[in-house]
Amino acid sequence: MTAGITIDLADPVPPYEQIRRQLSSLIAVGVLPPGSRLPTVRSLAADLGIAAGTVARAYRELEQSGLIEARRRNGTVVVGPPAAPHCPVGADAAVMAAIDDVISRARLLGVSDETLLDLLRGRLAQTSKLEP
Which of 111, 106, 33, 113 is CA-nearest to residue 68? Predict the structure, then answer.
């Protein structure tokens, strides 16, 4: 299962963080629902061509954030995204619909995924400076 997991060695973001971000996103959007088994550390490392310690660090950070859980005989399993206590019921669906709309529009306009992510990060940084 490397579905959607890629490592860009030219990216200044460390490989473990790239893995952590991608898995976190896949869990958040429901591609990896609760109960999904993740590949072993060694298997994912071999598939990605990186050191097992890199994958282990990503898994460790995901486990600390409550997204996954290492189980003895069942391997590493998705626990699910933590509930956001500040989000009203239905807000998750509304946000996901808005995100899907932005992705669709960007692709229609020929905006690359990398550029879209850069734009989103830039806007998040700008708006976080405006919040009290």
Answer: 33
Core vs surface per residue 20-53: b (16+ CB within 10 A) or e: bebbbebbeeeebeeebebbebeebbeebebeee
Residues 51-63 pLDDT 10s: 999 999 999 999 9
Give the whole-angstrom CA distance, residue 88 versus residue 85: 8
Q: Report d(CA 84, CA 109) in Å as an integer.
A: 32
What percent of the chain is helix, strand and coil (3-state, nearest 5)?
55, 5, 40
Q: What is the pLDDT of residues 33-85, one digit of tens each?
A: 999 999 999 999 999 999 999 999 999 999 998 999 998 888 999 997 765 55
Kindly report the pTM of this predicted structure. 0.66
26 phi and psi angles, rounded to 5 deg? -60, -35
